[in-house]
Amino acid sequence: MDGAREAQFAEFVDTELTRLLNLAFALTGNHHDAWDLTQETLARVGARWSRLKDSNPGGYAHTVLVRLNIDRVRRLRRETLGVLVDRPAPPVASLAEVDEFFLSVLATLSPSQRTAVVLRFIGDRDLQGIADEMGCSLGTAKSHLSRGMARIRERLDPDETRPARQGTP
Amino acid sequence: MSDERDLRDRFDALRTAVAPLEDAPASIERAVVRRRRRPLAVGGGLAGAAAVTAVALALLPGLGMFPGGAGTASMTTEATSESATDTLEADAPSYGFVPVEMSGETVGEWAAGADVLVVVGADDEALATVSDVPWRRTTTPDSPAGSFDLAALPIGADGQILLSTALGTSPEPTLAPGSDYLVALRWELVRCDGAAPGWILLGDDAVLRYADGGVLSDSAPSSTADAPLPDLDAPAAAAFVGLTADDVGGILSSVIDTHGIERARGLCQ
After folding, report:
1. Which of A99, A160, B142, B169 is packed most tightly, with the most Cβ within 10 A?
2. d(CA B7, CA B1)
3. Looking at beta carbons, which residues of chain A come within 8 Å of B20?
4. How far is CA B31 from each of CA A35, A130, B39, B97, B177, rounded to the nearest angstrom?
5. Do the Cβ atoms of B12 and B44 come closer than 8 Å?
6. pLDDT at position A167 over 70
7. Which residues of A fall within a CB distance of 8 Å from B101?
8. Which residues pair with B259 in a beta bridge?
9. What residues contact A132, with CB distance under 8 A and at least 6 apart?
10. Regarding predicted confidence, which is higher, B78 or B247?
11. Which of B13, B65, B95 has its CB closest to that of A32?
12. How far is Cα B266 from Cα A69, in angstroms, rounded to an integer?
């Protein structure tokens, strides 16, 4: 990359990093995987910056991140599930106390359901946008979203004892 | 505060839950440099992006990454090529995502996760009667597949199978009265919800309609009993459509032998 393009990409990273990192955190539920996903996404965008810079690199990055996550979750399923290895601490900080209960609820969703729900409520995508980013039909996206939301509501049933969200009166 | 408001607040809090530290951009810069040094596709025989995409189509048929819209065609090709490149390179360590239970969507998951296949017929009672056990895993040191003796699966009022999945969640598929199904079950020694060892549904996609001696599916068939073995990532619904339960069992055994697949460790073991 020449100097001008490097500067452009650096500006892009500066603009998009936090948004992508939070999307990744909602998809994965932990700093390490959120960082891996975000870094890998931006590395791919950066590696092809000269072709992407004049199109919609933010949208591209969003879609790559979502699909990378689906790809990696599926790969993990084929291997031993949830193998942990020592890794250096990621350059990520929590801004507030994490709502661990809600993350544990999201963790009970299937990967497709979680992706659909996160794209709707964190990514602000409509159904068509969810379908496009997940690479599935509108009906399938709708099904993932409604099933995911049903499962979340079931887990957040007010009759169940659960910790209140941080900051909730 | 209403539940809906509470839910939205929880999501809103997630939008700004984390922030990159000061050295994050530099780390990304280094990752970009590493990636630019990396060949697009390893393996020697692949000459260009078109070849990589072709491999992607062959390797990843079940990933659902091929939307048909013209507006996304370019994006799809590039993202898919990267996935294939990753699969070929296999150089990135797999880190510890939060546990994800199998869905039973792919042939690979059936081969690695299922312990028995059963054909069940849902009746109007609260049971789905087991009419056949066409396949049992033969190498299951911690599974009593050989002595599987459930005569029926419990089903709920709405037709849902009352065998939890690995995480202890309720399975999604429902059985229609009067219909038959081919179901993949797994013996879970250590249950995520602390329940006693027992039979669980492999996943939400581990239930296939079965009628007239064959698997029914909306998917186009991707294999026959005489065809080469399906890819591990092939959707089970497409790989098994039209096959008898015995043939599905035969394919599973062949897939396990051919790929040397070991039984997947329990999610919460």
Report:
1. A99
2. 10
3. 17-18, 21, 91-93
4. 12, 28, 14, 21, 55
5. no
6. no
7. 110
8. none
9. A63, B67, B69, B72
10. B247
11. B95
12. 22
Cα gap B38→A32, rounded to integer Å: 23
pLDDT, one tens digit per residue, over B13-38 is: 999 999 999 999 998 888 887 665 53
Place of tokens 């393009």: A5
Report, in angstroms and rounded to the nearest whole number, the Rg of chain B calculated over CA atoms: 22
- In the predicted structure, residue B139 carries a pLDDT above the cut 80: no
- DSSP-derived 3-state class of residue B18: strand
0.80 exceeded by pTM: no
CA distance B175 to B120: 9
How many residue contacts between A and B have a Cβ separation below 8 Å? 206
Is the model's pLDDT at B11 over the cut of 50? yes
ipTM (interface pTM): 0.81
The residue whose two tokens read 């009419």 is B131
pLDDT band, residue B177 (cuts 50/70/90): confident
Confidence band (pLDDT; 50, 70, 90) for A3? confident
CA angle, B28 then B30 then B34, to 5°: 115
| Partner residue facing A14 (CB), from B25, B31, B93 | B25
